[in-house]
TrEMBL record:
It comes from the Eukaryota. It comes from Nephila pilipes. This is Rho termination factor N-terminal domain-containing protein.
Length: 112
């Protein structure tokens, strides 16, 4: 079952727990994978393991989709914020001209 190799550590932990295996807190990814593959459930009821793995991958995809949607909304908000700032700058630019902001030095006439 090559799909197990695609799982992250936390996903392997969930799969192991779903098929009734005891998982120790400090287990590494390779240990979790070995625990699953060496289990009687894996050997005798491969469909249960396959289902748990598919659920884990589906949950990852859902989370990824949600994260993408959140990022899109964040970017939309940032764009609106920048458009508002630009509109404010343009509005302020209409109230004052550039020449008013740049005062020229008065001419110095030397009187002798």
């Amino acid at each position: 079952m090559s799909d197990i190799a695609k799982l992250k550590k936390d996903e392997l932990r969930i799969v192991a727990e779903e098929i009734g295996l005891v998982v120790n807190e400090g287990m590494k990814k390779s240990e979790l994978r070995r625990l699953i593959e060496d289990s009687d459930v894996f050997k005798n009821d491969n469909e249960a393991v396959k289902s748990a793995v598919e659920d884990a991958l589906e949950n990852r995809n859902k989370k990824s989709d949600q994260d993408s949607e959140i990022e899109i909304e964040r970017l939309k908000m940032e764009r609106i914020k920048l458009e508002l700032q630009l509109a404010q700058v343009k509005a302020n630019g209409n109230n004052t001209s550039f020449d008013q902001g740049c005062k020229s030095e008065p001419e110095n006439h030397w009187i002798a």
